[in-house]
Amino acid sequence: MMAFYECYSSSKIERENQARVEKFLEDYRARRPTRYTYADIKKITNLFQEILGEGAYGIVYKGTLSNEIHVAVKVLNDSEGNGEEFINEVAAMGKIHHVNVVRLVGFCADGVRRALVFEYLPNQSLDKLIFPKSFKDNITLTWKKLHDIAMGIAKGLEYLHQGCDQQILHFDIKPQNILLDHNLNPKISDFGLAKLCSKEKSVVTMTEARGTMGYIAPEVISSNFGKASHKSDVYSFGMLLLEMVGGRKNFDAKADTSQMNFPEWIHQRLNQGEELKIRIEEDDDVIIVRKLAVIGLWCIQWNATDRPSIKVVTQMLEGDVSNLTVPSPFTTRNTTHVGPSTQELTVISEQE
């Protein structure tokens, strides 16, 4: 009887081990990006029928996989670039599994034809909700929800900077690259300008600026202001926070440069002890607006050493606003008046 029991027990352990291995392989297959042919891409997008958006590097189409799961398919421009944007996205996103980062489902590299297949997020990008002229009538973002969105973005960035095997610097954090799921949870997307480096490396050397005007940290534009690092993403996140607060873009190429810029206006009012009173509806709204504004101002400090890390930013968002002080002195030099005048900067080569 004892021998029978030992045999049964041993078989049970083996079955459990096998089941554990099978589950791991199933999860691995589900997470590992699939390679598609261009014919697959045409089938998935129903011959590129529905356009979701268009950027500097290609067009994004809505698609459907065989199991009726919707996806977003980014078809990259054939004639532009040397494939760096494609390599960056696959290399970076193939390593990422986080609730606040868009998941890469698969990719296509069929000759010169390249495409990226992502999870589909029905509420599209954050800019369509926070900028008044593009507000959706059926979605209203409360300040509590805006705070939750800011927290989600910060946690996604913290994962990229500290949670991966390699540090991933995004270099293009902006509302257009924050996608929202059906519950309006934010997910960081578009890693075409990303830089992978070791966690031990505090700075990276760049030959040119990369990113989008209005969100680029001074040190990314010119090495005269220091070296690019994870603090460069913090600067971009700070500008994004201030845009969420104001419901307006921080940079307008057509605007009169003599006008006081938005970060200056926020700092002046907060430094004088005045409330911002921006779209206030609930009593707690004043607290949330002040918190987001103060954190945003800390993030866009001119000197990278004066900015908090994204981990500290997350702690600030989780903490009490009474513990936050307005940064002073506050440098109002604006990076949008430095460097190229084009709205989108091109992908560049880099030297270690």
Automatic annotation (TrEMBL):
Keyword set, alphabetical order: ATP-binding, Disulfide bond, EGF-like domain, Glycoprotein, Kinase, Membrane, Nucleotide-binding, Receptor, Serine/threonine-protein kinase, Signal, Transferase, Transmembrane, Transmembrane helix
Transmembrane regions listed in the UniProt entry: none
Residues annotated as signal peptide: none
Topology in the lipid bilayer: Single-pass type I membrane protein
Subcellular location: Membrane
EC class of the enzyme, as a word: transferase
InterPro entries attached to this UniProt entry: Kinase-like_dom_sf, LRK10/LRL21-25-like, Prot_kinase_dom, Protein_kinase_ATP_BS, Ser/Thr_kinase_AS
Domain (Protein kinase): residue spans on this chain: 46-331
Naturally occurring in which organism (per UniProt): Solanum commersonii
Protein's name according to its UniProt entry: non-specific serine/threonine protein kinase
